[in-house]
Amino acid sequence: MMRTLLDLILPMECGGCAAAGVAWCPRCRAELAVEPIVVEPRVSPGVPCWALGRYSGPRRRAVLAAKERGRRDLAEPLGAALGSALDWLRREGELDPPELASLALVPAPTRSRAARMRGGDPVTRTASVAARALPRCTVAPVLGLAGRTRDSVGLTVDQRQRNLAGRVQLRSGSSIPPRANVVLLDDVITTGTTARESVRTLRRAGIAVTVVLVVASA
Ligand SMILES: [Zn+2]
């Protein structure tokens, strides 16, 4: 019923390939259901980085639709895929198994104004879906961006670093469970500057990030 009503307002299409009549099609579901790959961004965050795949096809479309077209529903397939990847990392020993350590998912910081305009932060929403599917896993939105941070689109690597230096900050009101494995989550890793600044900020607060996991690596 709800779906029919929404269809009248906004014709439904797959967030990954634009196929008609479905929010997320079986083919795109299959494309996300893969083992994560190791990626090496130009600016190393100093911890292993994993991605569901390259920034292309359904991953790229879905990230853009969630970020810029208000497709909140895409948090479900993206979060489920990240949850499976985290489960795989636990089984492969890249993260401690649940009986040894809990897992804290830290969404990469986003400019708050941008997040508000886009109807909430898609990365945090996606992280919540991933956490729901995993034992002993919580979302810890502890990072934010201070003041005058420009959108990084179109900036060079050097400019991105200057833009972000010192501006990734700890937010009050949320904390990380002691002895948890900490995973920094983001939608896309491009140069690696956001991940590096985030890992640094957490390290200064005595929090060690175990791995970075993203939907796509550009
Ligand atoms: Zn599709």
Automatic annotation (TrEMBL):
InterPro entries: ComF/GntX_DNA_util-trans (IPR051910), PRTase-like (IPR029057), PRTase_dom (IPR000836)
Lineage: superkingdom: Bacteria
CDD domains with a match to the protein in the record: PRTases_typeI (cd06223)
Family stated for the protein in its record: Belongs to the ComF/GntX family.
PANTHER family found in the cross-reference section: DNA UTILIZATION PROTEIN YHGH (PTHR47505)
Protein name: ComF family protein
Organism: Antrihabitans stalactiti
Lineage, top ranks: Bacteria, Bacillati, Actinomycetota, Actinomycetes, Mycobacteriales
